[in-house]
Amino acid sequence: MLERYFVSFLLLVSGFLLFISFKLPLYTTSGLIGAGFFPRIISAILLILVCYYFIALIRKKSEKQEEGVPKSIVNQMSGGQEVFRKDIVIKQCILIISLIACIALTDVIGMLPIIGVFMFVMLTVVQRFPWVKSLIFTVTILFIMYAIFELWLGLILPKGMFE
Fold first, then answer.
1. Where are the domains of the chain?
2. Residue 47: CB partners within 8 Å, gap ≥ 6?
3. Backbone dihedral region for residue 99 (phi beyond 0: left; psi -120 to 50: alpha; all else: beta)
4. Comparing C-alpha atoms, which of 1, 11, 8, 10 is closest to residue 60?
């Protein structure tokens, strides 16, 4: 039940971001990519993925009910409430708080450093990947982001205190 609320919240946020992205221009007057291109693409992808996950969540619930265990028995086993794992809820809360902090600190620290710290912390603390693999993955993704945005597209990312 809690997971459905969380996914519903993500649906609302991604829909809102997609709506807001249409206020930004898709292309500049000279024909280059405008400020609305990447927010529109990313929010559309996010909306599609969250919708897919929400549909899979609904299917999973209906399959459990079809397995022959009546919903009343499941509710009796869990004291009348659906069972949820506290560690998953804690991970989701850590993710949301970290995303808010990441957005707030982007202009102060810079986009690439804050994304690097965010990815490394999420991989090591939340997902429990070994720190060496997390570091290699984070550095690789940061290099790819730098190559795409700074070198290939010529966009200036917020540098923060490293300017």
1. 1-83, 85-163
2. 11, 14, 15, 18
3. alpha
4. 1
pTM of the full predicted structure? 0.53
- Tokens 């965010």 map to which residue? 118
* Straight-line distance from the first to the last Cα atom of the chain, in angstroms, rounded to the nearest whole number: 46
Chain-centroid distance, C-alpha 105 = 17
Report residue 111 as tokens. 């986009």
- What's the one-letter identity of residue 102? C
Give, to the nearest 10 degrees, the angle between helix 86-109 and helix 2-21.
30
Give pLDDT tens digits for 75-94. 444 454 555 677 788 888 88
pLDDT at 132: 93
CA distances from 86 to 2, 3, 141, 154, 158 (A): 11, 12, 30, 44, 36
